[in-house]
Design a protein that fits this description.
5 strands; five-stranded mixed β-sheet; STM4215-like; 24% helix
C-alpha cells in the first residue's frame, strides 16, 4: 500500500511520462542520467486542517529538475512539464498546483532548470 505522498509522486511521474522524449526518474540515479530527463525530489510536506477523523489537507513542495544537453531543449521541456501539470491538476486529484520558484543551473556539458511546485490535495481516512 502506498502512502499519500508516494501516491502524489507516482501520479506526477506518470503524467510527466506522457511527454514525448522525456525520461522521468522518481529517484535520481546514482550514476549518469539519460538525457533529456526529469528528476523528482520532495522538498516539504505537511498535513493539516480538514476533519482529522475523515479527511485532511496535504500540502507538498516538490522540485522537478529538467535536464538536457542544450539550453533550447531544456527550456522547451520545462515549459511542457509546467503546462502538463497545470492542465492535468484536476485530473490528478489535486486542489491546486502552482509554480512557486524556478531557476536555470547550467553545468558542464548539461543544462538544468529546476521548478518548485506547491501541490495541495486531500487525504481521506477510511
Amino acid at each position: 500500500m502506498s502512502t499519500p505522498i508516494q501516491t502524489v509522486e507516482n501520479t506526477i511521474a506518470e503524467k510527466l511520462r506522457e511527454i514525448t522524449g522525456l525520461t522521468v526518474y522518481e529517484v535520481r540515479p546514482a550514476h549518469a542520467l539519460v538525457l533529456p530527463s526529469a528528476t523528482l525530489t520532495l522538498i516539504l510536506g505537511r498535513m493539516h486542517g480538514g476533519f482529522p477523523d475523515a479527511m485532511q489537507y496535504l500540502d507538498l513542495v516538490m522540485q522537478i529538475d529538467v535536464w538536457s544537453r542544450t539550453e533550447s531543449q531544456m527550456r522547451d521541456l520545462a515549459d511542457k512539464v509546467l503546462m502538463k501539470l497545470y492542465q492535468a491538476r484536476t485530473e490528478m486529484g489535486f486542489i491546486d498546483i502552482a509554480l512557486v520558484n524556478m531557476r536555470d543551473l547550467p553545468e558542464e556539458e548539461v543544462w538544468r532548470r529546476y521548478l518548485y511546485f506547491r501541490i495541495e490535495t486531500t487525504v481521506s481516512k477510511s
